[in-house]
Specification:
Layout: E1 5-7, H1 9-17, H2 23-37, E2 43-44, H3 52-57, E3 65-68, E4 73-80, E5 87-95, H4 96-103
Parallel strand pairs: 1-5
Antiparallel strand pairs: 2-3, 3-4, 4-5
Length: about 100
């Protein structure tokens, strides 16, 4: 059974503006398809390590996972409705440098 994958307006806008022939689009598209089959393919971030800005922006955030899109991009997503009404909700895809800044590295 495939699990629904949705995204924030911020993520959707980025995804829709990418050139469909670009490697970044193809990599993200492959990840989104993979998440429908395996929603836990990302690495779980400890709750205490989730940046306060994300907790404030998404107050119902219970978990956060990260996926490496390629050397330069990262994707953050959350799992909702587990174990019964499973769904994936992509919050952000961003360049690695922005990811480092968000997490204070």
């Amino acid at each position: 059974m495939k699990i629904p994958v949705n995204g924030t307006p911020e993520f959707s806008k980025l995804y829709q503006t990418l050139d469909k022939n670009s490697s970044l689009y193809k990599e993200i598209d492959a990840i989104l398809e993979g998440l429908t089959e395996n929603p836990c393919m990302g690495d779980l971030i400890e709750f205490k390590r989730i940046p306060k800005s994300l907790k404030k922006k998404y107050p119902d955030l219970k978990n956060l996972l990260i996926l490496r899109v390629n050397l330069d991009w990262r994707m953050l997503y959350t799992l909702k409705g587990f174990p019964n009404n499973k769904s994936v909700y992509v919050l952000i895809a961003m360049p690695h440098k922005e990811y480092d800044e968000l997490f204070g590295y």
